[in-house]
Here is the input.
Amino acid sequence: MDSFLGLPLAKVLRNEAFVPTFLRPRDGTGVTRFLIKRIGQSLVVVILVSMATFSLLHLLPGGAARAELGERASPSSIHAFNVANGYNRPFVDQYWFYLDRLVHGNLGYSYKLNEPVSTLMSMDLPKSAYLSGLALLITVIVAIPLGIYQAVRRNKPDDYALTGFSFIGYSMPTFWLGLLLIAFFSVFLKWLPPSAPQTPTVSGSITDPKAMILPVLTLTIVGVASFSRYMRSSAIENLAQDYIRTARAKGVTKAAVLFRHMLRNAVLPIVTLLGLSVPALLSGNLITESVFNYPGVGLLFWTSTQTRDYPVLMALTLVVAVFTVIGNLVADICYGIIDRRVRLS
Here is the structure.
């Protein structure tokens, strides 16, 4: 767990009894300093990712123009492409031109699909957010009580059984799990359709809940297997703390000990996992969307790799990076809200 949570806040699980600076009434600038620092770090990461993706585009054989227009493109077509996209300028000027377009919402143009990348993403992002968000919501609702139950029933037969199922779900490849669900529920039982809704809008997916069951179930099984394991470990650790023994000695009911005293501290690893889930929430789940042919951002990324649609790949890579740093920033802030022992330095 320590290596998985190897973030700047990995020490949050230590039992250090101190109040963070930004929560002290006499100092109202602590949270501002923290936010400025973390936002600055996030911007640096995003800029480095944009530089890396933009540099890789220039390493393509024949350059970006040849990659987009094909091997049979005429020199005049390549020259016109380079002028239109600023590739005839020095490298530094090209990068600043690229950043300027990003700031103005221009993510590039897909010559393969003959559509602006921003238009493609505006169509597919809401559908991916609906799929991933629904699966994540069910995952949290199921995994937190399940992890607490396993912690309370530690080393009992039901704990061993649930642990075994969790290991199976956690270790099973997502594509293989999706295929097994299709074979069982669609081919053998004929209860559910094998593919997700093919409508171009979120409303179409909402109006066809039966077709959403298998892709949501696939993501939920994998998520519950992961989240419940972290919740169980954190709950077991917190149940051995002094404040739990003190609450029990005072005659506090078992339910109050678990959900009023222990839950707030034990849920910290889940906060980290939720922060790391933000990129998947808004950038799509590539494997699941590909297996069930769900027309979201994940499937768009997959088809773009097949057709070598580099503007789409660059834009999606940048979007994933942005939402990754946003997820980590939100997780850091939530740590300070949930646990006052966390010190932000």
Q: What stands out?
A: Confidence is low (pLDDT under 50) at residues 1-28. Residues 1-345 form a domain with the MetI-like fold fold (CATH 1.10.3720.10). The chain has one domain: 1-345.
